[in-house]
Structures are given as structure tokens and as C-alpha cells.
């Protein structure tokens, strides 16, 4: 049974998985703005975690023909999740997990800090580990040099942030599933490299569109687009794919370091051979409804039939490992999380430290004012969000946090 509602917008409908609660007025206007673009394929899909974003909502799936909107991809290109299940059980964990959290924080740069030196504020390595330098040299150095040769303004820290977490809603967690098996889960993206690429091409698209005479109204300057066949479009695709690959490897390197940190404190363990590593801010070529199109998932996960994905709730409400059902109406997608219920500023004003501590009871995590904007109350009800997308995914595992690391 279809769980979406249909809202007419010009000739392109919106299909919204909004039964978890009505979308905010600003987000609805952004969805209508996107649907008014002449190169939209079929419809715009809104996931149940939709909330206002830059140009396009977070939690939307946008299929386009012969064009891409850089702001719809966003500036955290390739941001996503990774999860690995270990052979350890809850009974093999120590009573206090504070030493493990501290070990993870030493192993992976987070926020704006460096793991070495308290005054080195860049959220990366003061001295990049040899293994990470080798990975950069083997996988990325030549590709990045080719991008900079055409667009030198993109340059900035690269290898020094590979294998780092960042801040905001990025995190590292230890979780237990319904069988009390221990999982390692983390959330990060392409760091400053992807941010510079995204910001540069959003500005470049605006400048390019300003020089053109369009035969339609562009409702938001942040919906400036690049047309397939142009040099700028080709350059963006090259840089975007670079950032997406960087983000995927970034998560893999973080995971390796977290597992190494755990081995210092826990009994010997193995991990499942198959890890889940999925983007939720990206664009890719796919075939939908018989046509080859660009699919931009801005805060959405691919949920093709049988594909595994990760849907986190918040730092205190658990997460889900899901299997996609391949629903074509959502362009084979699902939500990327619970979605924000409050802006960061509103959360800091409304949520008290006492409320945050109560919500995080039983979880080894930061309990200070610096993370109030990430407190569980700042997010939508993950249970309602999951209920709203039962036709998109089925739940394979429900995870509950025992350790949370934030930047």
C-alpha cells in the first residue's frame, strides 16, 4: 500500500512520505520550488525526515534530466554512514565505558580539534599517519591535482583531514542490537575538501545562470543549475565523484582506527566480512521509470531491493539497519535519519542541560552545553519516521547506543 501523499505543483507532483507529521511551511515551499524546475523527472520525493535546507530540503530525492543543482547535493558531499558488527556481546563490555570513549577520541580527530596539540584547530592530523598519507597518495593525489589545475580556488587541507570525523551531527557510536551483539557505527563525510568543492560550484552555478536568459522563473538563486554538456557540468561531476570517494574512504579509515582502539580495551574479536558504507548526500546516474537520469539524494539513502542501509535516530534514541524494498515511487530511497525538529539555535535556547542528561541516561557520552543542539529532543520521533516508510524499507536490526562520541 502506498504511504505517500501527492501534492500538485505545476506539472510535476510531490510525493511525500509525510504521515510522521506535516512538513514545515518553509520546507514545503522548497519542495515546490524544486518541482517547478523544467528538468525534473516524474516527481520530487520527500522522505519523512524532511526539513529546511539550502535551496532544497534535507530529506528529498530529486531526479533530473540533463542537469544537476549543486546546492541540492550540498556542501557535505558524500556524507553518510558506516556500520560493522563485531563478535562481541554485551557481557564482554566493562562496567565503565569511559576509558573506551577516551581511547576513540584519541584515535580519531573530531570537531575542530587535532588529536595532537590542543592549539591545532583544524579537525585533522597535525602529523598525518603514514597509512593515511599512503592512501591519499595512492587514491586521491593525482585526481585532486587534476581538479585544482582547472579550479585552483578549491585548494585547502586534504590528506590532513582524511580519517577524521568533523563536528555537527557527525559521530562515532558503539551500539548493541536486539541480540546484544556489539556494533560500531559512524557518521562522516568529505570534510573540508567536499565543503570547498560544494561551495565553489554552487557559486559557479549562480554566476553561470546569471549570464543566461532563461525561459522559466528560477524561484531561488540556490537552485542555480549546471546543464549537461557544459564544461562546468563536467568539471563538477569530476569533483563531486572525487568528494564522494573521499567520503567513503574517510569512513573506512575512521572505522579501522576505532576498531584498533577497541582492541586495546576489549577481548579479542572478529567483525563481519560485509560492512555497510552508504552515502546520504550525493548524486548518481540511475535508471528510473525507463529513463537514465541523475538522482540527487540530499539527506536520503538508496534503498534498492535487498540493499542494506543505516538510518540513525539521534545520539540518545538508537538507530536502524534496514533492507531496501526497491520502491520506485521514492526512486528507491529512504530517509537518512530522524530529521531535525528544531534548528540548532532553537535547540540551544530550549533544551536545558538537565533535560539532555536525562535523555542520555545509560549512554557514555558528552553531557555538556556544547552538544545541546544535537540532544535527542532536537530531532523528530525516529519511531514515527520509521513507521512512515514501511513501504520503503524493512528493519533488519534495531541498535541502541552505549557509547557516543561527538565533535
Automatic annotation (TrEMBL):
Q: Which terms in the Gene Ontology molecular function aspect does this entry carry? A: DNA ligase activity; GTP binding; manganese ion binding; RNA ligase (GTP) activity
Highest rank taxon of the organism: Bacteria
Does the record carry Manganese as a key word?
Answer: yes
Tell me the active site.
Answer: 336
Q: Alphabetically, which GO biological process terms does the record hold?
A: DNA repair; RNA processing; RNA repair
Q: Which PROSITE patterns match?
A: UPF0027
The cofactors it requires, by name, are: Mn(2+)
Has keyword Lyase?
Answer: no
Report the PANTHER family cross-referenced here: RNA-SPLICING LIGASE RTCB (PTHR43749)
| Protein name as it appears in the record | 3'-phosphate/5'-hydroxy nucleic acid ligase
Amino acid at each position: 500500500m502506498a504511504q505517500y501523499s501527492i501534492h500538485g505543483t505545476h506539472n510535476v507532483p510531490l510525493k511525500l512520505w509525510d504521515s510522521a507529521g506535516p512538513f514545515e511551511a518553509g520546507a514545503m515551499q522548497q519542495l515546490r520550488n524544486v518541482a517547478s524546475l523544467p528538468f525534473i523527472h516524474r516527481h520530487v520525493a520527500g522522505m519523512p525526515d524532511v526539513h529546511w535546507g539550502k535551496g532544497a530540503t534535507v530529506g528529498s530525492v530529486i531526479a533530473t534530466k540533463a542537469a544537476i543543482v549543486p546546492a541540492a547535493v550540498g556542501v557535505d558531499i558524500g556524507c553518510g554512514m558506516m556500520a560493522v558488527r563485531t563478535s562481541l556481546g554485551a557481557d564482554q563490555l566493562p562496567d565503565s565505558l569511559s576509558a573506551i570513549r577516551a581511547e576513540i577520541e584519541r584515535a580519531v580527530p573530531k570537531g575542530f580539534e587535532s588529536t595532537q596539540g590542543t592549539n591545532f584547530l583544524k579537525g585533522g592530523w597535525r602529523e598525518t599517519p603514514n597509512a593515511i598519507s599512503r592512501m591519499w597518495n595512492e587514491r586521491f593525489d593525482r585526481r585532486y591535482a587534476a581538479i585544482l589545475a582547472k579550479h585552483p580556488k578549491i585548494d585547502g587541507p586534504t590528506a590532513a583531514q582524511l580519517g577524521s570525523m568533523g563536528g555537527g551531527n557527525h559521530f562515532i557510536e558503539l551500539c548493541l542490537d536486539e541480540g546484544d551483539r556489539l556494533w560500531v557505527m559512524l557518521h562522516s563525510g568529505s570534510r573540508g575538501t567536499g565543503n570547498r568543492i560544494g561551495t565553489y560550484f554552487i557559486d559557479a552555478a549562480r554566476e553561470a545562470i546569471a549570464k543566461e536568459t532563461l525561459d522559466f522563473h528560477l524561484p531561488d538563486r540556490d537552485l542555480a543549475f549546471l546543464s549537461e554538456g557544459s564544461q562546468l557540468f563536467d568539471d563538477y561531476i569530476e569533483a563531486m565523484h572525487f568528494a564522494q570517494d573521499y567520503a567513503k574512504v574517510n569512513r573506512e579509515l575512521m572505522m579501522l582506527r576505532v576498531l584498533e582502539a577497541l582492541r586495546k580495551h576489549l577481548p579479542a574479536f572478529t567483525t563481519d566480512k560485509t560492512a555497510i558504507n552508504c552515502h546520504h548526500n550525493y548524486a548518481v546516474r540511475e535508471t528510473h521509470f525507463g529513463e537514465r537520469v541523475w538522482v540527487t539524494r540530499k539527506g536520503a539513502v538508496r534503498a534498492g531491493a535487498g540493499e542494506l542501509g543505516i538510518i540513525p535516530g539521534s545520539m540518545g534514541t538508537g538507530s536502524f539497519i534496514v533492507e531496501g524494498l526497491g520502491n520506485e515511487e521514492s526512486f528507491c530511497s529512504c530517509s537518512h535519519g530522524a530529521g531535525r525538529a528544531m534548528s540548532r539555535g532553537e535547540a540551544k535556547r530550549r533544551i536545558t542541560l538537565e533535560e539532555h542528561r536525562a535523555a542520555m541516561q545509560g549512554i557514555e557520552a558528552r553531557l555538556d552545553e556544547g552538544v545541546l543542539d544535537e540532544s535527542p529532543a532536537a530531532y523528530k520521533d525516529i519511531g514515527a519516521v520509521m513507521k512512515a516508510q514501511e513501504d520503503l524499507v524493512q528493519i533488519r536490526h534495531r541498535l541502541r547506543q552505549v557509547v557516543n562520541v561527538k565533535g
